[in-house]
Design a protein that fits this description.
The chain is mainly alpha-helical and about 400 residues long. The chain has 2 domains: about 230 residues, no CATH class; about 140 residues, no CATH class. The chain is built from 19 helices and 4 strands. The strands form 2 sheets. It has a two-stranded antiparallel ribbon with strand order 1-2. It has a two-stranded antiparallel sheet with strand order 3-4. It is elongated and about 80 Å long.
Length: about 400
């Protein structure tokens, strides 16, 4: 006897089933297995494995290895699915094929797939018969919902290839907004959290890959993090890593080693603040003063000022050079931005060396005569590490 439900109920059931799948992907495969940002109770962990076997046929080791390689080789020729390299439409339409091709590479699995499940069930069922689970799911759906069960099953099977392999790997490195100017092309593409469970906050994730929480701004909703928080309150999960946080002490007047540690650890936050407080303010002032002949250059040049150099093509670099030639203030602001970034890129610098360099940067910035830059340098003195 099949369930006899109104159409809207079937729609809700389908959304619910697919949402469980995306929760398994973001919590188990991504945050737990790949980045080790959260520990899961063995029972919960195995439920996720079972559900993924039933609804996707994903092999944990393959998914983890491919995603780790994506982070390690992001936007290079070795990135398994970079739209910057192969084109956004190819990733959108053929994301699953790119995944399957990489999963056949034993070197990828051996190098990046370590410490994934290797118990009896994994070896003899979930990996050996990875294709079997989806047919078991089809049989369950048909037995419960009759012919409509096939439709529900088809949507379940398409959900991860479309939204994860296509949308996140495609649009998530092509279109959207960026909170952090990381050296990759990752973007945030909200609001589609119901469908992807927090994975849409892709730029936040690439900025702090080992964090269990993907949201950064108050308006960003990370459903995966909400579920992790709930499980942690029930003793079913334990958060191991979160993105660093800044604290500000308005009475602190001297740059010390705590300041250096805070600035280096939170460098992406620092550069985001610099772009917002200094670059955008000075840019607006200079744009307002620009004549008609320079208006178009200023209109196109805003993004060049804060774009990571690794992500700029020859045309963008030339445009930036032309823009800086039009404004001494922007040239100074851009120079100090590059100098600030260079502080933590110096791999051989000691903490004392970084302290001296940061003190010098602040002293010189305060003497530029550019109000926004001077205020930022003064503010930098008050930064310190905050407990998460």
């Amino acid at each position: 006897m099949y369930a006899n439900l109104p159409i809207w109920m079937y729609v809700l059931i389908t959304l619910g089933l697919t949402h469980i799948t995306i929760a398994c992907v973001t919590i188990f495969l991504h945050r737990h297995q790949t980045h080790r940002a959260v520990e899961l109770h063995p029972g919960i962990s195995h439920f996720f494995r079972l559900w993924l076997w039933l609804t996707t046929g994903i092999v944990t080791k393959e998914w983890v290895a491919i995603h780790r390689k994506h982070h390690a080789r992001v936007e290079t020729e070795d990135d398994p699915h970079s739209p910057q390299r192969v084109g956004v439409m190819k990733v959108l339409l053929e994301g699953s094929e790119l995944y399957r091709k990489e999963a056949l590479d034993p070197e990828t699995l051996d190098k990046y797939g370590k410490q994934t499940p290797d118990d009896y069930l994994e070896r003899n069922l979930y990996t050996r018969f990875s294709f079997l689970g989806v047919f078991v799911m089809m049989a369950i759906n048909v037995s419960l919902f009759g012919f409509l069960g096939l439709t529900i099953w088809a949507i379940q099977m398409a959900w991860i290839p479309v939204f994860a392999a296509g949308v996140i790997n495609g649009f998530g490195h092509w279109w959207g907004y960026r909170n952090f100017e990381s050296p990759d092309a990752s973007t945030n593409i909200i609001p589609i959290g119901m469908f992807i469970g927090g994975e849409e906050l892709h730029n936040n994730h690439h900025a702090f890959a080992s964090s269990a929480r993907f949201s950064s701004k108050w308006y960003e909703v990370d459903l995966g993090w909400s579920y992790i928080s709930l499980m942690q309150s029930l003793g079913l999960a334990k958060v191991k890593k979160l993105a660093p946080m800044l604290a500000f002490d308005s009475e602190k007047e001297k740059i010390d080693l705590d300041t250096v540690k805070a600035v280096v650890t939170n460098r992406l936050h620092i550069m985001s603040d610099y772009a917002r407080v200094v670059v955008k303010k000075v840019y607006k002032e200079e744009k307002d003063k620009a004549g008609k002949a320079r208006k178009d250059l200023f209109r196109r040049g805003k993004r060049w000022l804060i774009r990571h150099e690794d992500l700029m093509d020859a045309r963008a670099k030339q445009g930036l050079e032309d823009l800086l030639a039009q404004s001494h203030s922007l040239c100074v602001v851009y120079e100090y931005q590059q100098r600030l970034q260079a502080l933590w890129q110096e791999k051989t610098a000691t903490q004392e060396g970084l302290l001296d360099a940061l003190q010098e940067w602040c002293q010189q910035a305060e003497q530029t005569g550019i109000e926004a830059l001077e205020e930022f340098a003064l503010t930098l003195r008050g930064y310190s590490m905050a407990a998460v």
